[in-house]
Each structure stands twice: as C-alpha cells, then as structure tokens.
Amino acid sequence: MTAAQVLKRSRMFVNFHRLKTRQIQQLMMTCFALSVVMVYWQSLDSDLVSHIKSYSLRHLLTNLDFITANLTISREEAQKFSNHRYLINQEGKCADKDVLLLLFVKSSPQNFEMRQAIRSTWGNEAYIEKTLGVTVKVVFALGFPPQPLQRKKLQRELFQEDQRYHDLIQQDFLDTFHNLTIKLLLQLGWTHAYCPHARFFMSADDDIFVHLPNLIHYLQEVDRAGVKDFWVGKVHQGSPPVRDKDSKYYVSEEMYPWLMYPDYTPGSGYVLSKDLVSKVYQASLTLNASLYIDDVFMGICANAVGVLPQEHVFFSGEGRAPYHRCIYRQMMTSHGHVKDFHELWKQATDPEVQKVYSGAFGRLYCTLAKIPLLCKPFFTNTYPCKAAFL
C-alpha cells in the first residue's frame, strides 16, 4: 500500500470517527430531551386528555339539559344552602336610586386593606357619580370569620367598619373556599330582595382591578341597545372538572360525574343584565348548590335557563393584564392585584391615556405595542392575542 493510500484511509477513519461521535452526541441529546418530556408528560397527560375530551364533547352536544335535570332538587332541599341569617345588612343601599350597576365584591373578613384600596380607587361611589354621572353601588359579600381564636375580634372590627362605610353584606356561614357557592347565593338573594332594579349586576373578587370608566361606557351602550339575557366576561368553554385531589379545585366524580362543565365565566369578574340575574336567582332555588366552585355553579344556573356567556377580550379572567397605556384604553378587568391599586388607578384613568392614543396613528401605535404584550405562547389567562388588533 502506498503512502498516499495510507493517508487517504487514515483521513476516512478520522472523518468516520468524527461522524460517529456527532451522531452519538445527537442521540444523547435526543434521549435527554425525550426524558425531560416524559418527566412532565405524566403530570400533564391526564389534565390535557381531559381538556381535549371535554372540549370535543362540548361541540358535539347542542345542550347540557341532562346536567340541570340531574342537579334539580326541591325548593325545601335547596333552601338549606341559602337559608342563612344576615349579621350585617344594607337594606336601603339601593333605595330610591336609578342604579346602573350593582357591584358585589367577594371579600374575606380579614381583608380590610383590600376593601379600603377598592373604596379609595375604582370602587369610590362618590367619584363615579361625580365624574361619570351614573349611580354605581359597591358592596362587599362576606361570611362569618372561620378562625375560632380570631372570630370575636374580627367580627367586632367588621361591625366598626360597617358603621363607618355602610357597604358590608354578611351572613352567618363560614367564610371559606368551600363556601364560595353559598357566597354567590348571598349575592343573588340580596340583589333579588334589595336591589332588583339595578340594570346590571357584577360579581368580582377583592383582588381584581375594574376599570370603571371603561366598563360604565360599555354598559351604557349595552343598556341603550336593550340587550336581554346579557352575561359577559372571559368565557371558559368545555372545561373539565379537576380530578387531582391535591388541587383546591378538586371535584369528586360523586359530586360532579360528568366530563365537562357548562360554559362559564371565572368568578374573578363578570357582568349580568338585571333580567338574567332574576332568572339565575330563580334557577338557583331548585338546584343542588353543594358544588363549591361558585363560577361553575353560576354556569349551571344559566344553563338551566338556556343562556350562554358572551366573551369580552378585555375581561382578564384569572390573569393580570400587562401594564401599558394602550392596554388601559380598553381594559375592563385585571386580576391578581394587592398592593398596586392606587398606582394602577392613577395611571389607567389618566385623561391623557384616551387623548394621546386616539385617531388612526394612535390606534396603529397601540396595535404594534400590544402585539408583543399579548401575542405570546401559552399566555392564556389574560387578554388573548386578538385583543391586540382591536
């Protein structure tokens, strides 16, 4: 064998060795990636499959009357869920007033600071009437303090708070997560008894920011249009019950045996017209309210009267909206706020927000600004990507 042939073979061997090493590296990387996927897949699998099943099933069924039929009980049986005594009440809150919006904030007894932040920002009734020229009534829905050692002290503080602000509605059920549906029944029952003439009803969490000027202008348009059976928020369609026992949203098959919930809006914030509030209240009088996911129970009540929610892209659902002036122009709600109510209220209601970004150039600028804020993979809990183009 000549020297040239030996050199050629050695080069071929080196190239083959390099190629083999590269293939081994690629194989190792592929195996590593697959192992990572498999680690996470086990936890994602059942949840993902249940979502696919329920969403597909939702589009196959024209109605969910079988759910209503199976949850219907007598009025006497249903009364045990709503037959609670008022500890604090505001019977004259809506008296002799043309109320555009009754806004119920679900709060916990100990959340005094959050109630204060709401009273001094978006829930300031006097400010709303003075600047927007409409009457909005804001009240806080509460249960009884669940902590035995703090109960007397907290209840005494609640009485003092109410003497000053006159905006607490409290009944004697324990204020816990598993009694949220009872708290919804409080809201529906109180509205029926003391404020049935309010043209719109809103239920919201106490860590939500509501852009009242935007919401009021929107509801005035809806009111002028004479829309009936109005229910708006972020819509969850074809959602399955959570079967993971470690989740606080866990619902057993015994409690709810079906694969999916009726369409509903998250309890963080949604709005109903007064005609629908009345219908939902009547439906709640003959439905089993043992399901403690309150927004789902609201969906069950609405399903019983044949009404579906309407999606509004600027209701944030469970998510917090991005901080940007172009977002504030159209914001309805943003969820998950605790410490920033005052600063967000100041920025979101600045008159310059509406002035600077008006006109064709302003709309184009805001579209370009919102695209990177909203059009992100897996960014589903706040405004959707399509909101960037509105």
Automatic annotation (TrEMBL):
<keyword id="KW-0808">Transferase</keyword>
<keyword id="KW-0472">Membrane</keyword>
<keyword id="KW-0333">Golgi apparatus</keyword>
<dbReference type="Pfam" id="PF01762">
    <property type="entry name" value="Galactosyl_T"/>
</dbReference>
<comment type="similarity">
    <text>Belongs to the glycosyltransferase 31 family.</text>
</comment>
<keyword id="KW-0325">Glycoprotein</keyword>
<keyword id="KW-0328">Glycosyltransferase</keyword>
<keyword id="KW-0812">Transmembrane</keyword>
<comment type="pathway">
    <text>Protein modification; protein glycosylation.</text>
</comment>
<dbReference type="GO" id="GO:0030148">
    <property type="term" value="P:sphingolipid biosynthetic process"/>
</dbReference>
<dbReference type="InterPro" id="IPR002659">
    <property type="entry name" value="Glyco_trans_31"/>
</dbReference>
<dbReference type="GO" id="GO:0006493">
    <property type="term" value="P:protein O-linked glycosylation"/>
</dbReference>
<dbReference type="GO" id="GO:0000139">
    <property type="term" value="C:Golgi membrane"/>
</dbReference>
<keyword id="KW-0735">Signal-anchor</keyword>
<keyword id="KW-1133">Transmembrane helix</keyword>
<protein>
    <recommendedName>
        <fullName>Hexosyltransferase</fullName>
        <ecNumber>2.4.1.-</ecNumber>
    </recommendedName>
</protein>
<dbReference type="GO" id="GO:0047256">
    <property type="term" value="F:lactosylceramide 1,3-N-acetyl-beta-D-glucosaminyltransferase activity"/>
</dbReference>
